[in-house]
Write a structure and sequence with these properties.
The complex is a heterodimer. By secondary structure, chain A is α+β, with helices and mostly antiparallel strands. Chain A has a single domain (29-112), classed as Alpha-Beta Plaits (2-Layer Sandwich), CATH 3.30.70. In chain A, 20% of the residues lie in helices and 15% in strands. In chain A, a hairpin with a 5-residue loop joins strand 2 (58-60) and strand 3. Chain B has 13 helices and 15 strands. The radius of gyration of chain B is 21 Å and the shape is globular. The chains are: A alpha+beta, B alpha/beta. Chain A binds chain B through residues 5-9, 11-18, 20, 23, and chain B through 97-100, 160, 197-198, 205-211, 213, 216-217, 219-221, 223-225, 227-228.
């Protein structure tokens, strides 16, 4: 973020924010220690993960179907994995360190092999 | 025309709220301010006002409901005392930090422990740095007048900061005095319609209140907030003049009582000022140049203006109705003493704690303060910088 931040006498009073939804520009994904990994093959599209996600980080496609994780904002709390009802689970946590430098397929393999 | 009435300080506050007729009052009962929300509830039940009264389960919730209602865009008022005020603590900061011009009546009272329900300034002095404008009344008339003015001060677009109008618990809240109640229509006209800056309910202009500010935003917000609070000083003076034009009782930032040539000066706030004025009058009859500087606006503290008034006097005693709690003196003392630091030939300043937990302060005690000031001027020596009035046993 290289945009110039406003001075104290340029801001709206009381910390009010006029552009709705601007929290999207604040990326919280770097807070994550572990990431949820999604397995679309066993997913039954119940949308429990979407309902429970406290950070609106479950991506939904134009048909209203679960389409993956928004890693720019997901903080890695693991609630989606906790709530996933399929057996075996269609979401699994993996340490960020273990996901580093790997392809999507390798990451999925790593996450669901445990 | 207004009419003379004989009512308590709490009734004065309740009638002010009735005439202001805010959109919302959210309050929880606590002695000695209970008759205020009780009175408001009665006025609503009797159809004399159409305020939405929100009954809550604590003062924390009362102030939280006030914050919500004010952010929504309503004119909002409440009342409390002592431990109730203390329970509001974190939300007091949220109200001021969110720049919500809530107006609160505080019947000032001692804080526990030991349990005590009587008057002193422990509550409002403890909350002096919560970012609220603080006006302190001497009597019922000022209690009524201050609350009406507080609405206009708080809602001023340059200020947009919550304000409290304090008055002494029991000494004023439960004492019946004769005071002048103005016409409903004239009060309504004086306070005018409230136009909120960023109301949540204006859905075609969406706004977020209460978002978090990370380290790269918080500091700027706090200084922006401070500017609003400091702006209140000039607005208090303007509204005080305007009030004088409308109702014949003009107010300034302070009241200088017989200060023009005063040599021995007491600085105080609240109901003790009435007693002190009587003593000043008697001393003046005997040729003693006594004076009183009564604090009306405590936050923001008008230190330059007060130092100007005090710079000509020979010795000063500051009366604090709260324990210094480990500071060099009470909060009023440390503020006054600091304000005088930049004055040439600054006079000696001593401090008294008085009236804690409703302890009586009588003319004889105020007289002893002037005697001490006279002794300081005569001998050029301050023997005790801090002392207590009407305490059993010798302090220090």
């Amino acid at each position: 973020m290289s945009e110039k931040l406003l001075n104290w006498d340029e801001i709206l009073i009381g910390g009010a924010i006029k552009d709705p939804g601007n929290s999207k520009s604040y990326e919280t994904g770097s807070w994550r220690v572990e990431r949820p990994v999604w397995n679309p093959e066993s997913c039954i599209q119940c949308m429990f993960c979407w309902v429970y996600c406290p950070d609106s980080s479950i991506l939904v496609d134009e048909n209203g179907k679960m389409a993956g994780i928004d890693y720019d904002h997901c903080k890695g709390c693991g609630i989606c994995v906790e709530q996933c009802p399929t057996k075996p689970k269609s979401l699994a946590m993996l340490l960020e360190a273990e996901a580093k430098g790997k392809s999507e397929e390798e990451i999925r393999k790593e996450a669901f092999s445990k | 025309m207004g009419k003379k009435v004989a009512l308590t300080g709490n009734e004065a506050a309740a009638h002010a709220i009735r005439q202001i007729n805010p959109d919302v009052v959210a309050a929880f009962p606590i002695t000695p301010s209970t008759p205020i929300p009780q009175g408001v509830a009665q006025f609503i039940a009797d159809g004399q006002m159409d305020t939405e009264f929100v009954t809550v389960e604590s003062e924390h919730s009362a102030m939280s409901a006030c914050v919500g209602a004010s952010a929504a865009g309503g004119r909002v008022m409440t009342a409390t005392s002592a431990n109730g005020y203390a329970l509001m603590w974190e939300i007091l900061y949220i109200a001021s930090g969110t720049r919500l011009p809530i107006v609160m009546a505080v019947a000032a009272r001692a804080l526990s422990a030991p349990l005590n329900i009587h008057g002193d300034h422990s509550d409002i002095m403890g909350g002096r740095d919560t970012g609220w404008i603080q006006l302190i009344a001497e009597n019922s008339q000022e209690t009524y007048d201050n609350l009406i003015q507080a609405v206009k001060i708080a809602e001023n677009k340059k200020v947009m900061t919550p304000a409290l109008g304090a008055f002494d618990g029991f000494n004023i809240s439960h004492a019946i005095e004769i005071w002048e109640m103005e016409d409903d229509a004239k009060v309504k006209e004086f306070v005018g319609e409230y136009e909120p800056l960023y109301p949540l309910l204006k859905t075609d202009e969406p706004i977020t209140h209460g978002a978090w500010a990370p380290p790269n935003w918080y500091f700027e917000n706090r200084m922006n907030q401070l500017e609003g609070l400091l702006n209140a000083k000039d607005v208090v003076a303007d509204v005080g003049k305007e009030f004088g034009k409308a109702f014949g009782r003009e107010y300034g930032l302070y009241e200088a009582y017989k200060m023009d040539d005063a040599e021995f000066t007491i600085v105080a706030a609240g109901s003790v000022c009435g007693t002190t004025k009587d003593v000043v009058d008697k001393l003046r009859e005997n040729g003693v140049k006594a004076g009183l500087l009564k604090i009306r606006l405590f936050r923001p503290f008008p230190y330059k203006e007060l130092a100007d008034v005090l710079s000509g006097t020979k010795a000063i005693a500051v009366l604090d109705r709260v324990s210094p709690a480990g500071a060099q003196g009470g909060p009023l003392f440390t503020e006054i003493r600091s304000a005088l630091y930049d004055v040439n030939n600054r006079p000696p300043v001593i401090n008294y704690t008085y009236g804690l937990g409703g302890r009586d302060t009588q003319p004889v005690h105020i007289n002893s303060v002037y005697d001490t000031l006279k002794k300081i001027v005569d001998t050029g020596r301050v023997e005790k910088q801090f002392d207590c009035l009407n305490l059993r046993g010798t302090w220090g």
